[in-house]
Amino acid sequence: MGKGPGLYTDIGKRTRDLLFKDYHSDQKFSITTYSPNGIVITSSGTKKGDLFLADVNTQLKRRNITTDIKVDSDSKLFTTITVDEPAPGLKSILSFRVPDQRSGKVELQYLHDYAGVCTSVGLTANPTVNFSGVLGTNGLAIGTDVSYDTKSGDFTKVNAGLSLTKPDFIASLTLNEKGDALNASYYHMVNPLTNTAVGADVTHRFSTNENTSTIGTQHALDPLTTLKARVNNSGCASALIQHEWRPKSFLTISGEVDTRAIEKSAKVGLSLALKP
Fold first, then answer.
1. Long-range pairs for 204-208 at CB < 8 Å and ≥24 separation?
2. 20 to 30 A from 275, CA-CA: which of 224, 228, 252, 259?
3. Largest CA distance in the chain
4. The model's pTM
5. Once rounded to an integer, what is the mean pLDDT over residues 230-252?
6. CA-CA distance, 13 to 89, in Å (whole number)?
7. CB of 227 within 8 A of CB of 221?
8. Reduced to 3 states, what is the DSSP secondary structure of residue 253?
9. How many CB atoms lie within 10 A of CB 18?
10. CA angle 9, 15, 17 (to 5 degrees)
11. Higher pLDDT, 38 or 145
């Protein structure tokens, strides 16, 4: 377990990663190159049906400042400047998109042994202000996540969460969408030697009295190959295999089938990430 309660986004993250990370139905390719002066360039492409999307990301690190500049196939420019540890436990992030003049945002993160705080504000005349905070320890944490629109004077987001972490399991409970959605998630490490784990995620929506649920598992065939599988209450079953064929380079093949309409074609995704 890590030191301190972390940020609000860490509540339930282990379960989300188990159930949703690396599953996809597209064809993705990325290659990363490193220059002698420390510049990292990552070129990516994604094929979604008949649509092909591409982007190039350039990262430059200088002392504790990291600058990321990404250009996509629509000629949009995304820039993020991160200053790590300008003061103990503090991180500051400036991000903006060109040509969107209303996209600028400043974010501050602070991590302490018994607290984690993240606040952001848009760089506009009437910005949206977001605040999230967590109190507790690495074993028990409680927090909230709220957004306030200064133009309308309304709270656009009000969430709250609770997390319990033990060496072999993590349980979390969150109340989202201004109290309309109650989410419970559970992650259990069955065997650390084979990275075998199971997880479940359940959401109840009070306004419609509907429940959604997903359960899944993962298992490492060997130190470089991982299998994952999941199924949700709609009958969609998915599985993937991921192989690290060289350090930090991954080949991932995933598939999804609707068990309630087995005659439909299965969705297959392929992802290849290359790093020298």
1. 205/180, 205/181, 206/179, 206/180, 206/181, 206/182, 207/180
2. 228
3. 58
4. 0.91
5. 96
6. 21
7. yes
8. strand
9. 23
10. 75
11. 145
Locus of tokens 């320890």: 137
Q: What's the CA gap between 17 and 12, in Å, rounded?
A: 9
User: Among candidates 143, 142, 147, which has minimal Cα distance to 131?
Assistant: 147
Question: Which residue stretches of 7-163 are H helix?
Answer: 13-20
Pairing of strands 27-34, 267-274: parallel
Q: What is the pLDDT of residues 60-97, one digit of tens each?
A: 999 999 999 999 988 899 999 999 999 999 999 999 99
φ/ψ (deg, to 5) at 19: -90, -25
Q: Please give the structure tokens belonging to residue 151.
A: 């133009």
Question: Pairing between strand 267-274 and 51-62?
Answer: unpaired
**In 226-240, which positions are buried (b, 16+ CB within 10 angstroms) versus exposed (e)?**
bebebbeeeebebbb
C-alpha–C-alpha distance, residues 173 and 163, integer Å: 7
- Report the C-alpha gap between 40 and 10 in whole angstroms: 27
> Quick check: bond before 167 cis, omega within 30?
no
**Paired residues of 40 in beta bridges:** 34, 59
* pLDDT score, position 74: 87
pLDDT of residue 2: 54
Over the chain, what is the mean pLDDT? 95
Residue 208, both tokens: 């419609």
Contact by Cβ (8 Å): 91, 73: no
| Distance, CA of 118 to CA of 51 (rounded, Å) | 36
